TrEMBL record:
Pfam families membership: Molybdop_Fe4S4, Molybdopterin, Molydop_binding, TAT_signal
GO MF annotation: an example: molybdopterin cofactor binding
Name of this protein: Dimethyl sulfoxide reductase subunit A
UniProt cross-references to NCBIfam families, sorted A to Z: dmsA_ynfE
Similarity section: Belongs to the prokaryotic molybdopterin-containing oxidoreductase family.
Signal peptide coordinates: none
Organism name: Pengzhenrongella frigida
Gene3D superfamilies reported for this sequence: 2.40.40.20, 3.40.50.12440, 3.40.50.740, Dimethylsulfoxide Reductase, domain 2 (3.40.228.10)
The 4Fe-4S Mo/W bis-MGD-type domain, residue ranges: 60-121
């Protein structure tokens, strides 16, 4: 494939989702009606400064705070203080146990937050690197010196290289905050500071959902979500593809409660399609369908072949609402044999019929099961289909996601109650304002996953080869990285050993500023390390809580004084703004509390019933049910009238064949073996299921599921959590037996990029040929370079996905041996 001057399609832009990162948020503010009720609640218990003795503890006061990490929930926490110290953490006690009015009970992590706040790893004073970068050698410096050095470097870099040389790295440690918010970059205090001095190099996409966001853009014209989980009660069949709400949405504010209750009350038959027998398979599934990672598009093709040849698909739906299913519904000028039906029947360029036997050979699911499942799916209506983000965090992730959307189209269940689009479930959230955000004068952005390329070879990166947006190419490499509340500088990015080596060379990236409150893996790579307070040490508003059919907001008050010599991010950015001559622009003369008050005031018109700041502060958490009633139905308006409510695709319809991708497949330059296809075809990739069978050195696929011990790396240094949920590698009994590995044996998992050491969990809960290393453990190389922390990213690579240039971190091959 060759590069040409064709423009990057506009639709390639990640559609700006509402503030809620975790779900396609239902509707807008306009139709919102609310009861304005604060559900239940014991008067006085929530009051910020009331003296409360609870559970026999003698405490001075109970203060509403929160857990703001990036786990898909946002939990209110009631922190009890005695003599200036948090002595006890209690969950939400407002509401009841009904869907839509439930208590937002914190999970085990939030309840152990004291061990994070008072952790021995807490950063205590500003520090400057003295040894080689990454050596972990620092000396304490004054705040004055830290601010002077950072502002001096920013001024020099802007003069020498321009604002595009300064990058804000991904970080979601305070995703729930508003003034303290750490992602998206545009909404952070660091961005506000940089915008006052000309802007910064932005990123698009995120480590969570880069590929599915790209997929949704081409197939649906943007991020539309699927029906909410409580709507599954209206289905005859529920299917979850790599969707694990019982572990990844763990609180009463998450989907754990909604999915469990819906299943309990309505008992709709449920399939979980996942290489692992996940917590969700355990808790919800009537049938677990175990497949090889990265093969969902092959499974869908096998199912679709049976449905189409047995006439079990919804032809009328496909004719009316879709482009590209069959030859009669193709864009003009596309060669014959390019439709999805032709692909299925073997009438396309590859000449291969996608029979159940064909799919069985790729997915590892028996052909008989595929035929049975196809008949079940084809005769059930409506079918509630959602996918998590496991299927798309792969080298062929865009096609994985699009294939699952296509299955939803074949069932004709899109836009109806009990159906779904095949995207991730949506949930209801409040339309809150965020007055703190300022526009970035720089329009250039790179994919979230390509910042290491930006350091290594930034000026060579182009739109058509690397997905640079806003410009044909980057002019300068990245010279400075801000890492605020993130561990993606190493631990959460691909290939830690390679990343560490890149960062060690301080002639490339000249300045790294890390702002965290723990001595994390990424913090070791800082030139200047700034100790932030924890959220218990400052006031903020947690805007976008959302649980199924309930939206909520939390005023997280200051519980204790800042520990050690820590400062708030607002104070840090204000001091830097002062030195850069933009203090007035940055603060507008306002305090942090002023910004929180303004956020409430500006939100009130769009969130009817939202109390004022002072009342909210007393209430702590304020909840309101979805005014539209139970169950959000994605694309209901499109289903009702596709002409009046077209999608944002070029055709206005669901594009099973995407002409934009067709053009990209001819104009983009891709690494050898990578492929962009106009149809949601199965693509065998580097380090994929088929590569495993021919790679004698590294014959096992490894995924890194999201684990209850941690939220990524956060809480990874909390003793209670490590004890309750230890780090282990999941290995199938057959693979373990073949290698003489018994349960609890210490093993090493390795490939050419690295080696990790951890105990084995030998289990039939994972498919043969597959391992899983829960992602987020803290990288900890010993003298031999073996990572005894057991971090998944010691094994992953930098190789991005073809369309979104996203992180394909679940696509990894390795071998395992007993130590
Ligand atoms: N192999 C593999 N890698 C993955 C994934 C995967 O599935 N597999 N998942 C990816 C995904 S989906 C994501 S979202 C990313 C997440 O990557 P990150 O956004 O980097 O998430 P965390 O590791 O939780 O890092 C959050 C950081 O914020 C810090 N923090 C917490 N509270 C505060 C605070 O109040 N102030 C400050 N300044 N800092 C604070 C924490 O100490 C921690 O260092 O990881 C990605 N990496
Ligand atoms: N406890 C906890 N909760 C979290 C997080 C956390 O770290 N800990 N992280 C939060 C964040 S930021 C995010 S983005 C979400 C992540 O949410 P997800 O991305 O959905 O989580 P994963 O665990 O990566 O994947 C979900 C499931 O997909 C399966 N899977 C992997 N590959 C495939 C495949 O090819 N096909 C199919 N069908 N299934 C596959 C995995 O085994 C897993 O059970 O979770 C959030 N919630
Ligand atoms: S980690 Fe998530 S679910 Fe658990 S307490 Fe924190 S916000 Fe709630
Ligand atoms: Mo994520």
């Amino acid at each position: 494939m060759t590069a040409s001057t064709t423009e990057v399609p506009q639709t390639a832009g990640l559609p700006r989702r509402s503030f809620l990162k975790w779900s396609g948020v239902a509707g807008g503010a306009a139709a919102l009606v609310t009861t304005g009720a604060h559900f239940g609640g014991v008067p006085g218990v929530g009051a910020a400064h009331a003296a409360v003795a609870a559970g026999g503890f003698d405490v001075d006061r109970t203060v509403w705070s929160s857990c703001n990490v990036n786990c898909g929930s946002r939990c209110p926490l009631r922190m009890q203080v005695k003599d200036g110290q948090i002595v006890r953490v209690l969950p939400d006690n407002t509401g009841d146990d009904e869907i839509g009015t439930q208590q937002i009970r914190a999970c085990v992590r939030g309840r152990s937050i004291r061990q994070r706040i008072y952790n021995p790893d807490r950063l205590k004073a500003p520090m400057k690197r003295v040894g080689k970068r990454g050596s972990g050698e620092f000396e304490e410096i004054s705040w004055e010196q830290a601010f002077d050095e950072i502002s001096g470097t920013i001024t020099r870099l802007i003069k020498d290289y321009g604002n595009e040389s300064i990058y804000l790295n991904y970080g979601t440690g305070t995703l729930g905050g508003t003034v303290t918010r750490s992602w998206p970059p545009s909404d952070t205090p660091v961005a506000r500071l940089m915008n006052c001095v000309g802007g910064y190099l932005n990123h698009y996409g995120d480590y969570s959902s880069a590929q599915i966001a790209g997929a949704a853009t081409y197939q649906y014209g943007g991020w539309i979500g699927s029906n909410s989980f409580d709507d599954a009660k209206n289905a005859t069949l529920q299917i979850l593809f790599g969707n694990n709400p019982l572990e990844t949405r763990m609180s009463g504010g998450g989907e754990t409660f909604v999915t469990q209750q819906t299943k309990k009350l309505h008992n709709v038959r449920t399939l979980v399609i996942d290489p692992r027998y996940s917590e969700t398979a355990l808790g919800l599934a009537d049938e677990w369908v175990a497949l090889r990672p990265g093969t969902d598009a092959a499974l869908v093709a096998g199912l679709a072949y049976v449905m189409v040849t047995e006439d079990l698909h919804d032809q009328a739906f496909l004719d009316t609402y879709c482009v590209g299913f069959d030859e009669a519904h193709m864009p003009a000028g596309i060669p014959a044999g390019s439709s999805y039906k032709s692909y299925l029947l073997g009438d396309g360029p590859d000449g291969v019929a996608k029979t159940a036997q064909w799919a069985a050979g790729i997915t590892g699911i028996p052909a008989g099961s595929i035929i049975r499942l196809a008949r079940e799916i084809g005769t059930a209506h409506p079918v509630h289909i959602t996918q998590g983000w496991g299927p798309q965090r792969h080298a062929n992730g865009e096609n994985q996601a699009r294939a699952i959307f296509t299955l939803a189209a074949l069932t004709g269940s899109i836009g109806v109650a009990g159906g779904g689009t095949g995207e991730r479930e949506s949930s209801y959230g409040l339309a809150m304002a965020n007055p703190f955000v300022m526009a970035n004068p720089v329009e250039t952005s790179i994919s979230v996953f390509s910042w290491t390329d930006g350091i290594e070879r930034g000026a060579e990166m182009t739109a058509l080869a690397d997905g640079v947006r806003g410009k044909d190419k980057l002019d300068v490499p990245i010279k400075m990285v801000w890492q605020y509340a993130g561990n993606a500088l190493t631990n959460q990015h691909g290939d830690i050993n390679r990343t560490a080596k890149l960062l060690e060379d301080d002639s490339l990236c000249e300045m790294i500023v890390v702002i965290d409150n723990q001595m994390t893996v990424s913090a070791r790579y800082a030139d200047i390390l700034l100790p932030d307070v924890s959220n218990a040490e400052q006031l903020d508003i947690i805007q976008q809580g959302s649980a199924g059919n309930m939206g909520y907001t939390i005023i997280a008050d200051q519980v204790i004084e800042p520990l050690y010599d820590c400062k708030t991010i607002y104070e840090m950015c204000t001091e830097l703004a002062k030195r850069l001559g933009v203090e007035q622009q940055f603060t507008e003369g306002k305090s942090q509390e002023d910004w929180v008050r303004q956020t409430v005031e500006e939100s009130q018109p769009d969130v009817p019933g939202l109390p004022g700041f002072d009342e909210l502060r007393e209430l702590g958490v304020w909840k309101t049910p979805n005014p539209a009633g139970s169950g959000n139905i994605a694309l209901a308006d499109f289903r009702a009238d596709p002409v009046a409510n077209p999608l944002d695709t070029p055709s206005g319809k669901i594009e099973i064949f995407s002409e934009l991708l067709w053009d990209m497949s001819k104009t983009w330059t891709l690494p050898e073996g990578d492929k962009i296809t106009a149809l949601p075809e199965y693509i065998a990739t580097w380090e994929g299921a088929e590569a495993a069978r021919t790679d004698s050195k590294h014959p096992l696929q490894v995924i890194g599921h999201h684990y209850k011990q941690r939220t990524h790396s956060t809480y990874g240094n909390v003793a209670w959590m490590k004890e309750a949920h230890p780090q282990t590698v999941w290995i199938n009994t057959l693979d373990a037996a073949a290698r003489g590995i018994a349960n609890d044996d210490v093993v090493e998992v390795f490939n050419d990029r690295g080696r990790i050491r951890l105990p084995a969990r030998v289990t039939t809960r994972i498919a043969p040929g597959v391992m899983s290393v829960p992602q987020g453990a803290w990288y900890d190389p010993n003298a031999d370079g073996v990572d005894v922390g057991g971090s998944m990213n010691t094994l992953t690579s930098w190789h991005p996905s073809p369309i979104s240039k996203g992180n394909a971190q679940h696509t990894t091959l390795a071998q395992v041996e007993k130590v």
